[in-house]
């Protein structure tokens, strides 16, 4: 017995692997991507090629995940900075009462299990987010971050090793500027 809720408007690339107990609607998923059990991907979310989305993950509207990204177990994305259940008049909010705030995970990034990623955040190319982190601001390319809120611990060694000193300095200054926003 396989229970999958995959709406007719989902765009699936070639060779996508879908586990049991998933809920997909209005999203697109690139070729060779694997979606684990108990994952929900909402409308207007985009998942690239060769990604792995692990079990119990929630990907909401407005999230773009580029190619070759790993998303660990129980990762939650947020698309509203100031969520409210009701309007100022007391009625339940509808889609007309708020706007989606985007989140982007760039190529080759890895997101550890149990991470929460807030709205309006970009996680840079090949960055690594440690398990259990809460990402509240942009993560620079090749950075390794962890904690609540997530902070830069260091950079992947292959990024800086062999790079000219001025390039190493440029990468570090970029990280500091993002960190101090």
Kindly estimate the percentage of residues that lie in beta strands according to DSSP: 25-35%
- How much is the radius of gyration in Å? 17 Å
According to DSSP, the number of beta strands is 21
Structural class: mainly beta
How many domain regions? 1
CATH overall fold name: UDP N-Acetylglucosamine Acyltransferase, domain 1
Low-confidence runs: none
- The ordered string of helix (H) and strand (E) elements is EEEEEEEEEEEEEEEEEEEEEHH
Summed over residues and divided by their number, the pLDDT gives a mean of: 90
Distance between the termini: 50 Å
CATH architecture: 3 Solenoid
Largest sheet report? 8 strands, mixed
| CATH evolutionary superfamily | Hexapeptide repeat proteins
Fold and architecture overview:
With 181 residues, this protein is mainly beta. It has a single domain (4-179), classed as Hexapeptide repeat proteins (UDP N-Acetylglucosamine Acyltransferase, domain 1, 3 Solenoid), CATH 2.160.10. Helix content is 10%, strand content 28%. It has 2 helices and 21 strands. It has helices at residues 157-160, 165-179, and strands spanning 4-6, 11-12, 17-18, 22-24, 28-29, 34-35, 40-41, 46-47, 52-53, 58-59, 63-65, 70-71, 76-77, 103-105, 110-111, 116-117, 122-123, 128-129, 134-135, 143-146, 151-155. Strands 3-6-9-12-15-18-20-21 form an 8-stranded mixed β-sheet. Strand 20 and strand 21 (151-155) form a beta hairpin. The termini are far apart.
Give short descriptive properties of this protein.
single chain; UDP N-Acetylglucosamine Acyltransferase, domain 1
